[in-house]
Write a structure and sequence with these properties.
11 strands; 38% helix; 9-stranded parallel beta sheet; Glyco_Hydrolase_99; Glycoprotein endo-alpha-1,2-mannosidase; golgi apparatus; alpha/beta; 14 helices; glycoprotein endo-alpha-1,2-mannosidase activity; signal-anchor; 10% strand
Length: 464
Amino acid sequence: WILNYDIMARFRRRTCIILLLFILFICSIMMALKTLRPDRAGFGDPFGLGLLPELQQRTVLLDNKQNSLNRVQGDAVTRVSNLHSMAVNTMKASMPPVNKLEEELSSPNYNFHIFYYSWFGNPQFDGKYIHWNHPLLPHWDPKIANNYPKGRHNPPEDIGANFYPELGSYSSKDPTVIEAHMKQMRSASTGVIVLSWYPPGMADENGEPTDDLVPVILDYAHKYSLKVTFHIEPYKDRDDRSMYHNVKYIIDKYGGHPAFYRHKTSTGRFLPMFYVYDSYVTIPEIWANLLTVSGSQTIRNTPYDALFIALLVEERHKHDIHRSGFDGMYTYFATNGFSYGSSHHNWASLKAFCDSNNLMFIPSVGPGYIDTSIRPWNNHNTRNRVNGKYYETAFSAALLVRPEIISITSFNEWHEGTQIEKAVPKRTGQMVYLDYKPHKPNVYLELTQKWSEKYRKEQEQWLM
């Protein structure tokens, strides 16, 4: 009996050891499999909205954390100190410590440029509403105009937009708004803010001068490792001489700021870049005075030389842009089919023209278009967002032509419904605003981040 007991005890010990070794083996196998998780597990394949929310959001945060470690751009020390200061400023007592902000923010993609407007105002910061109270614009045909309402919007419940911002009828001067915008743009993995700009003392017909805001925007952009370039609007008497003085003003005043954008050219030079809206309203001969080496007002081979990007609307504009001495073209409008330039099916031929004439082609993608809050007669140009599918189609079309830069229309052009800024459902007594449901307010930021990563990976393949 004693012998049997001893045999049974040894058998149990051996069994326990074998079981323990088996458990350790299983654990090691699972850890190994975890490290082999594919990088693209965040959104699935093929690309589509599909299952965007919770589970995939968590995976994307893990991917973004890894991307932020793998793709550090610019000065590493500056980047770390920026992230540290952002984490300190945003951390709350209830939040888990360290690295939360790094998980949320993707690395900036400096080949993703996004149009940004700082023309909004409210009574708290500006003494009155600006732009949110946009007038209803009449149709140019009086017979048509008589069929539509007149007047202007009455914020904060009634604003000049078909969507309603999560931040409400904000002021572009509000530091908390500027910081929120920078954080949103950074989370979307954009890298360059294309800031709508008028010369000092000038503004659009519904706004106030905004040049004084540029230093603040530059400072907050730098905090989030973003860069700023300028979208020069068609101000009064814009010509070769005034443009020379205004480019000189911008470079002299802002060119030394670390957030001021410079683009590395194929020759290795780092040059400022200026987008020129409605460039076609000025004849090529005037632009050539400024933009060609032999021009009477030439900016070429001077300390103020830069890359100048013209707006292409009609097909014939491509020849004018080339004759004018511009360095490239962009399409701006988020309405597929509205113009020759904004029609996706024309981008391949435009890219081919640019390649053969040493020009940059910068297609502009947008999430949709609706401006009936300020142009109630313009229903035919509305482009439904289709829960994000319209935006993804535009990105897909842009990637097909392998552009060096993609521009996004827009972060916050609320009047034309092209914004990717967070929007929320809102209902008033007279109006129900559009929203991003069934998705969350940040869905277009997430889609932008997703396509930024896809674009970055595809660019790496193009260059191989």
